[in-house]
Specification:
alpha/beta, Rossmann fold, five-stranded mixed barrel, 5 helices
Length: 177
């Protein structure tokens, strides 16, 4: 299977680029709008639509639960925009899986620390990936490394460590090791 990797920021992508310089890596930008635009653009590419290329969104996330530790890497099975009123919330699902990592539910948010009852992690892009991938019939999944507990100040995040373990996990997924 061919893979195409999307990272919200260059800082999240840098360790992976070092380990896999031949991999196709795109920087989408932070947030749902930037991610949706990137995935919609990719859906127009022949290699993504016709050859079964898997689009992998990768980056850091915060954990809501003590059962997912800082430094863990997870594969996100579903996303929900928790900032929407409950009657408008929709769950978006991965359209494929690429790992045996723990499968989790995630909340896609615009700001940190939104209250949610069933998500295990939070990020700012995932729902957009899954919504567009489903609408455009493309294979997409999301891997996240936990850099912090939800609500912690950025200065307390373990960003660099998380991006390093994420890069290693991505390499394991694509090589089967």
């Amino acid at each position: 299977m061919d893979y195409l990797f999307i990272f919200p920021t260059e800082a999240e992508a840098a360790p992976f680029r070092r380990l896999a310089p031949e991999a196709e890596v795109l920087i989408s930008g932070v947030g749902m709008a930037a991610t949706a635009a990137t995935v919609a653009h990719l859906a127009q590419r022949d290699d993504v639509r016709e050859r079964g290329c898997c689009v992998v969104l990768a980056g850091v996330a915060g954990s809501y639960t003590d059962s997912i530790a800082v430094g863990d890497v997870v594969e996100v099975a579903s996303e929900c925009c928790v900032e929407l009123p409950e009657r408008f919330r929709q769950t978006y699902n991965a359209t494929c899986r690429i790992s045996t990592l723990r499968s989790v539910r995630s909340a896609t948010v615009h700001g940190a620390g939104c209250a949610t009852s069933d998500a295990e992690v939070e990020n700012m892009e995932g729902a957009a990936l899954y919504a567009v991938a489903s609408a455009m019939n493309i294979c997409a999944t999301e891997l996240r490394a936990i850099s912090n507990r939800v609500g912690e100040e950025f200065e307390k995040w373990h960003f660099e460590e998380a991006t390093e373990v994420l890069a290693s996990a991505l390499i394991s997924c694509i090589t089967g090791n």
